[in-house]
Amino acid sequence: MRGLTNKRVLITGGASGIGAATAARFLEEGSRVCILDRDAKACAAIRQQLPAISEAIIADVTDLMQVEAALADAVRVMDGVDVLINNAGISIRHKFLDITPEEWDKVIAVNLTGVFYVAQTAARHMMENYTVERGSGVILQTASTNGIMGYPYYADYNATKAGVIELTKTMALELAPKVRVCAVAPGYVLTPMQRAEYSDAMLDEVNRKIPLRRHAQPEEIAALFAFLASDDAAYATGHVYTLDGGEIAGGLASR
Known about the structure:
- By secondary structure, the protein is an alpha/beta fold.
- It has helices spanning 17-28, 40-49, 64-78, 101-128, 155-175, 192-197, 200-209, 218-229; strands at residues 8-12, 32-37, 55-58, 83-86, 137-142, 179-186, 240-243.
- The protein has one domain (8-189, 217-241): Rossmann fold (3-Layer(aba) Sandwich), CATH 3.40.50.720.
- It contains eight helices and seven strands.
- The protein has a seven-stranded parallel sheet with strand order 3-2-1-4-5-6-7, sandwiched between helices.
- The radius of gyration is 17 Å and the shape is globular.
């Protein structure tokens, strides 16, 4: 991709799954990468797995003070942040009637409030440090097909991802032209989080409903993040880019 060499990239939820694959892809593109994750053990593991990363910062996106400190660390280590991959998220598979207030608050805190905290903190840095020479800052947020379509057993998760989509569109309008903002909406991706919630039989059942007959690999989502952050996507802002193997083209629920 054009323009990613020496770009300074911060990835939340970067110690596993899509985040870790995205970190690896940006390193391949010649970018400098810091990851932010609340899992200290996973951060230690990713340092071993990807020794070229600039730093693995332990922080909880639901805590604004920790977010601000983490961004300051990333700026110190990389001398700035050009690209944010706002990816940290959780899900809890429950029937709507069984969701507890505590579970609702937990999912909202990570998937929506945390996305807002990180996005606002990074956007302030990008707006204040914009130069014509470096070009626009870029904020890319992980949404989901769950934020576009209705899915059972994930009412709280679905609500947050719909919120991320609208947050993304509004940010793009307000931050242009100094910062580009887009969202990526993956369909089913074979991540540790997905593995924890789905049995092999459940995975097979889903695969039969997807036109391409399989889950995405995290590296495929990472490739879209790399493109959207690059100079090849310099005119892309304010939109959601779905990567789902055709899942919602005709409505997965209707198949």
